[in-house]
Amino acid sequence: MTQPFKVGSLLLLAITPVWAQLAVSHAPASTATPAFGMVAPGPAGRPVARVNGTVLTDRDLLREMYAIFPYARQHNGGFPKAMEADIRAGALKMIVFEELVYQEALRRGVAVPPAKMDRALADLQKQFKSPDDYREFMRTECNNSQKVLRAKIQRSLLIDQMLKAEISSRTSISLIQAKAYYDKNLEQFRVPETFAIQTISILPPPKATPSQLKEARMRAEDALRQAKATKNYEEFGVLAEKISEDDYRVMMGDRRAVDRAKLPPEVLQAAQALQPGQLSGLIAIENGYTIIRLNAHNPAGTQKFEAVKDGLRKQLKQQMSEQLRSALDQRLRAHAKVEEL
Fold first, then answer.
1. What is the dihedral of CA 240, 246, 248, 250, to 10 degrees?
2. Which residues of 295-316 are buried (b: 16+ CB within 10 A; e: fewer)?
């Protein structure tokens, strides 16, 4: 990952929403049908996995990767190199899991009421900007077949019903449970001093020549001039997306809250001199130049329960969901033949 200074690893966990589940192809044996949902040209339907003989393709995989990291759609489909392998692995596990859930729904004879199918179809049609977009979608993704479309919608709804029955309906965290967890794990709620920052970085090529270094300095000075003209988070972020050369440009330059211990001394020194909303000057770093915008400075301390209770309940519920999901995945895989190609 090209970056002007190190930050903590980004962990990506995603539960795919119902409409993203519609994206998965469902083809027996080795013949893959067109996948649901529009994907930029590139993947050609190459098999990436078989689940009890059903083929999942690279088109399915790419859609799930976009679901995990949607910023990639805004940048010509590009994923940060240091994160791409993890995103791909997570997406592959997810599409295999969803196929296992779908097949289990069929095995159990789970049914989707016709009225629910009709509502889902109507909701889908509303997502298209124009009738022409919908017709193009039907042509390229469903062979102009309402039967194919309804089959894909049914698949999505069956997955959704199964996940609600096996996971969502079984997760509930009360305020008392959350408080008990908080009291028992106070260390988890001690937070270090952090600086929430956005960056714009200008990076010369490796082993840059003197002329390349001079050119990078000129670009950095121009970047600083443009950055000073921004008035808020959004404007700075849009500029970062346009001209920054570190991978955080795809996230509007936003590095969130960074522990002061992880900031290089020169960056920390600049951050300490800023008030929220202010910009630094050019900061010379090991491999180029960076400009930071301070969004927040948070001192070290222990978070109060009242401040964290809602997020904690959500976190504990998510942990419970992940445990149930993992257990369901293991049960389904125990009786399935899964091949990653």
1. 70
2. bebeeeeebeeeebeeebbeeb
Please state the pTM of the whole predicted model.
0.57
pLDDT-derived band at 72, boundaries 50, 70, 90: confident
Q: Which element (helix H / strand E) includes 284? A: strand 283-285
DSSP letter for 204, please: P
Distance CA 336, CA 338 (A): 6
Alpha-carbon span 120 to 18, nearest angstrom: 10
Strand intervals (E) in 9-87: 27-28, 47-51, 54-57
- Name the band, by pLDDT with cuts 50, 70 and 90, for residue 12: very low
Both tokens of residue 181? 């967890």
Structure tokens at 226: 């443009």
The domain segmentation of the chain, as residue ranges, is: 18-166, 193-299
Average pLDDT score over residue span 237-243:
97
Q: Does domain 18-166 have CATH number 1.10.4030.10?
A: yes
- Mean pLDDT estimate for the chain: 87
Distance between CA atoms of residues 154 and 156, nearest Å:
5
The answer to whether 48 and 55 are in contact (CB under 8 A) is: no
CA pair distance 135, 324, nearest whole angstrom: 39
Identity of the residue numbered 17: P
Planar angle of CA 151, 69, 134, nearest 5 degrees: 40
Phi, psi at residue 194, to the nearest 5°? -130, 160
Q: Rounded to an integer, what distance in angstroms lies between the CA atom of residue 78 and that of residue 241?
A: 13
Find tokens 């008030």 and name the residue: 275
Q: Between 3.50.50.60, 1.10.10.10, 3.10.50.40, 3.20.20.140, what CATH number should domain 193-299 receive?
A: 3.10.50.40
Residues 62 and 94 sit within 8 Å (Cβ to Cβ): no
Q: What is the CA radius of gyration of the chain?
A: 24
